[in-house]
Design brief:
It is built from 11 helices and 4 strands; from the N terminus they run αβαβααβαβαααααα. It is an alpha/beta fold. A 4-stranded parallel β-sheet has the order 1-2-3-4. Strand 3, helix 5 and strand 4 form a beta-alpha-beta unit. The two termini are 32 Å apart.
Protein backbone atom coordinates (compact mmCIF):
# COMPACT_ATOMS: atom_id res chain seq x y z
CA UNK A 1 0.00 0.00 0.00
CA UNK A 2 1.44 3.41 -0.97
CA UNK A 3 1.98 6.22 1.54
CA UNK A 4 -0.63 8.29 -0.29
CA UNK A 5 -3.20 5.50 -0.03
CA UNK A 6 -2.46 4.99 3.68
CA UNK A 7 -2.87 8.68 4.43
CA UNK A 8 -6.12 9.09 2.53
CA UNK A 9 -7.63 5.74 3.49
CA UNK A 10 -11.22 6.43 4.53
CA UNK A 11 -10.82 10.19 4.11
CA UNK A 12 -12.28 12.58 1.58
CA UNK A 13 -9.87 13.60 -1.16
CA UNK A 14 -8.59 17.13 -0.55
CA UNK A 15 -7.33 19.99 -2.64
CA UNK A 16 -5.46 22.99 -1.28
CA UNK A 17 -4.51 26.53 -2.19
CA UNK A 18 -0.98 27.62 -1.29
CA UNK A 19 0.41 30.99 -0.20
CA UNK A 20 4.19 30.93 0.32
CA UNK A 21 6.85 33.66 0.66
CA UNK A 22 9.27 32.18 -1.87
CA UNK A 23 9.62 29.45 -4.48
CA UNK A 24 11.74 27.19 -2.29
CA UNK A 25 9.17 27.14 0.53
CA UNK A 26 6.37 26.65 -1.98
CA UNK A 27 8.18 23.75 -3.67
CA UNK A 28 8.82 22.03 -0.32
CA UNK A 29 5.17 22.25 0.72
CA UNK A 30 3.94 21.17 -2.71
CA UNK A 31 6.13 18.07 -2.39
CA UNK A 32 4.74 17.19 1.07
CA UNK A 33 1.17 17.83 -0.12
CA UNK A 34 1.77 15.60 -3.13
CA UNK A 35 2.95 12.78 -0.85
CA UNK A 36 -0.31 13.23 1.08
CA UNK A 37 -2.28 12.99 -2.16
CA UNK A 38 -3.38 16.64 -1.96
CA UNK A 39 -3.08 18.61 -5.23
CA UNK A 40 -2.43 22.35 -5.12
CA UNK A 41 -4.95 24.43 -7.06
CA UNK A 42 -5.03 28.17 -7.92
CA UNK A 43 -6.66 30.52 -5.44
CA UNK A 44 -9.56 31.25 -7.76
CA UNK A 45 -12.41 31.88 -5.37
CA UNK A 46 -13.19 28.22 -4.60
CA UNK A 47 -13.74 28.14 -0.81
CA UNK A 48 -14.21 24.35 -0.77
CA UNK A 49 -10.40 24.02 -0.78
CA UNK A 50 -8.50 25.23 2.32
CA UNK A 51 -5.51 27.55 2.13
CA UNK A 52 -2.04 26.60 3.33
CA UNK A 53 -0.25 29.85 4.22
CA UNK A 54 3.47 29.63 4.98
CA UNK A 55 5.81 32.19 6.49
CA UNK A 56 8.75 32.69 8.82
CA UNK A 57 6.28 33.69 11.52
CA UNK A 58 2.56 33.20 12.07
CA UNK A 59 1.98 36.93 11.41
CA UNK A 60 3.95 36.84 8.15
CA UNK A 61 1.97 33.86 6.89
CA UNK A 62 -1.37 35.48 7.71
CA UNK A 63 -0.43 38.87 6.26
CA UNK A 64 0.64 37.24 2.98
CA UNK A 65 -2.88 35.91 2.47
CA UNK A 66 -5.34 37.75 0.21
CA UNK A 67 -8.08 39.65 2.03
CA UNK A 68 -10.84 37.04 1.47
CA UNK A 69 -8.65 34.47 3.24
CA UNK A 70 -7.95 36.79 6.19
CA UNK A 71 -11.69 37.49 6.42
CA UNK A 72 -12.37 33.80 7.01
CA UNK A 73 -13.94 32.92 3.65
CA UNK A 74 -11.55 29.98 3.30
CA UNK A 75 -10.36 27.35 5.72
CA UNK A 76 -6.84 28.39 6.73
CA UNK A 77 -3.84 26.34 7.84
CA UNK A 78 -0.83 28.40 8.93
CA UNK A 79 2.59 26.75 8.58
CA UNK A 80 5.33 28.86 10.20
CA UNK A 81 9.04 28.48 10.91
CA UNK A 82 8.59 30.19 14.28
CA UNK A 83 5.47 29.64 16.39
CA UNK A 84 5.75 32.10 19.27
CA UNK A 85 3.24 32.03 22.15
CA UNK A 86 2.10 35.64 21.67
CA UNK A 87 1.64 35.09 17.93
CA UNK A 88 -0.39 31.95 18.51
CA UNK A 89 -2.68 33.77 20.95
CA UNK A 90 -3.21 36.67 18.53
CA UNK A 91 -3.98 34.24 15.72
CA UNK A 92 -6.50 32.35 17.86
CA UNK A 93 -8.20 35.62 18.83
CA UNK A 94 -8.41 36.43 15.10
CA UNK A 95 -10.23 33.13 14.50
CA UNK A 96 -7.31 31.03 13.21
CA UNK A 97 -7.52 27.60 14.78
CA UNK A 98 -5.14 25.46 12.70
CA UNK A 99 -1.35 25.94 12.87
CA UNK A 100 1.75 23.83 12.34
CA UNK A 101 5.48 24.45 12.82
CA UNK A 102 7.13 23.91 9.43
CA UNK A 103 9.94 21.82 10.93
CA UNK A 104 8.91 18.19 11.01
CA UNK A 105 5.75 18.57 8.94
CA UNK A 106 4.78 15.15 7.59
CA UNK A 107 2.24 14.24 4.88
CA UNK A 108 -0.07 12.60 7.43
CA UNK A 109 0.07 15.56 9.81
CA UNK A 110 -0.47 18.04 6.99
CA UNK A 111 -3.47 16.09 5.66
CA UNK A 112 -5.03 15.91 9.15
CA UNK A 113 -4.55 19.65 9.71
CA UNK A 114 -5.98 20.45 6.27
CA UNK A 115 -9.14 18.50 6.96
CA UNK A 116 -9.53 20.36 10.25
CA UNK A 117 -9.00 23.71 8.51
CA UNK A 118 -11.56 22.79 5.85
CA UNK A 119 -14.28 21.83 8.32
CA UNK A 120 -13.44 24.44 10.96
CA UNK A 121 -12.73 21.85 13.67
CA UNK A 122 -9.54 23.47 14.87
CA UNK A 123 -6.35 21.42 15.21
CA UNK A 124 -2.92 22.17 16.62
CA UNK A 125 -0.10 19.79 17.48
CA UNK A 126 1.08 19.30 21.04
CA UNK A 127 4.00 21.73 20.73
CA UNK A 128 1.75 24.56 19.49
CA UNK A 129 -0.83 23.96 22.21
CA UNK A 130 1.87 24.14 24.88
CA UNK A 131 2.91 27.52 23.47
CA UNK A 132 -0.73 28.63 23.32
CA UNK A 133 -1.27 27.72 26.97
CA UNK A 134 1.98 29.41 27.90
CA UNK A 135 3.15 26.55 30.08
CA UNK A 136 4.88 23.20 29.95
CA UNK A 137 2.88 20.10 30.79
CA UNK A 138 2.70 19.61 34.58
CA UNK A 139 5.32 17.15 35.75
CA UNK A 140 3.20 15.58 38.44
CA UNK A 141 -0.10 15.90 36.59
CA UNK A 142 -2.93 18.29 37.32
CA UNK A 143 -6.40 17.41 38.49
CA UNK A 144 -8.01 15.21 35.81
CA UNK A 145 -11.69 15.50 34.92
CA UNK A 146 -14.10 13.52 37.06
CA UNK A 147 -13.73 9.84 36.22
CA UNK A 148 -10.42 10.33 34.34
CA UNK A 149 -9.81 8.48 31.10
CA UNK A 150 -9.48 4.81 30.27
CA UNK A 151 -6.12 3.50 29.05
CA UNK A 152 -7.39 3.40 25.47
CA UNK A 153 -8.82 6.92 25.67
CA UNK A 154 -5.51 8.23 27.05
CA UNK A 155 -3.61 6.51 24.24
CA UNK A 156 -5.94 7.91 21.57
CA UNK A 157 -5.65 11.39 23.09
CA UNK A 158 -1.84 11.21 22.94
CA UNK A 159 -2.01 10.07 19.31
CA UNK A 160 -4.33 12.96 18.45
CA UNK A 161 -1.84 15.33 20.11
CA UNK A 162 0.92 13.86 17.92
CA UNK A 163 -1.12 14.67 14.80
CA UNK A 164 -2.52 11.26 13.87
CA UNK A 165 -5.83 11.09 12.04
CA UNK A 166 -8.53 8.49 12.70
CA UNK A 167 -7.30 6.12 9.99
CA UNK A 168 -3.74 6.10 11.38
CA UNK A 169 -5.00 5.58 14.94
CA UNK A 170 -7.19 2.69 13.81
CA UNK A 171 -4.23 1.01 12.10
CA UNK A 172 -1.97 1.38 15.12
CA UNK A 173 -4.63 0.04 17.49
CA UNK A 174 -5.76 -2.70 15.08
CA UNK A 175 -9.39 -1.60 15.21
CA UNK A 176 -11.92 0.07 12.91
CA UNK A 177 -12.21 3.82 12.34
CA UNK A 178 -15.75 3.53 13.72
CA UNK A 179 -14.28 2.27 17.01
CA UNK A 180 -11.79 5.15 17.05
CA UNK A 181 -14.61 7.66 16.51
CA UNK A 182 -16.52 6.16 19.42
CA UNK A 183 -13.45 6.36 21.68
CA UNK A 184 -12.93 10.01 20.69
CA UNK A 185 -16.60 10.79 21.30
CA UNK A 186 -16.41 9.26 24.78
CA UNK A 187 -13.16 10.98 25.76
CA UNK A 188 -14.52 14.35 24.58
CA UNK A 189 -17.58 13.80 26.75
CA UNK A 190 -15.36 13.00 29.75
CA UNK A 191 -13.15 16.04 29.09
CA UNK A 192 -16.22 18.23 28.46
CA UNK A 193 -14.88 19.56 25.15
CA UNK A 194 -16.34 19.71 21.66
CA UNK A 195 -13.40 19.24 19.28
CA UNK A 196 -9.98 17.60 19.00
CA UNK A 197 -7.95 20.77 19.64
CA UNK A 198 -9.87 21.48 22.83
CA UNK A 199 -9.43 17.87 23.93
CA UNK A 200 -5.66 18.06 23.59
CA UNK A 201 -5.56 21.47 25.32
CA UNK A 202 -7.59 20.08 28.22
CA UNK A 203 -5.34 17.03 28.35
CA UNK A 204 -2.29 19.29 28.67
CA UNK A 205 -3.90 21.47 31.34
CA UNK A 206 -4.85 18.49 33.47
CA UNK A 207 -1.63 16.54 32.98
CA UNK A 208 -3.32 13.67 31.12
CA UNK A 209 -0.78 13.98 28.28
Amino acid sequence: MSEQTRILDGAELLRAHLVAPDERTAAGLVAVLARAGVPVVPLDGAPEAPVVAAGRTVEEAVQACPEPVREGKYGLLVVADTVAPAAVRRAVRAGIRTMLPRAGVTPARLATALQSALYGDGWMPYSVLVRLLGTAPPAGGGQPPIGGLTARQSLVLRMIADGHGNAAIARDLSCSEHTVKNVIYDLMARLQVNNRAHAVAQGIRTGLI
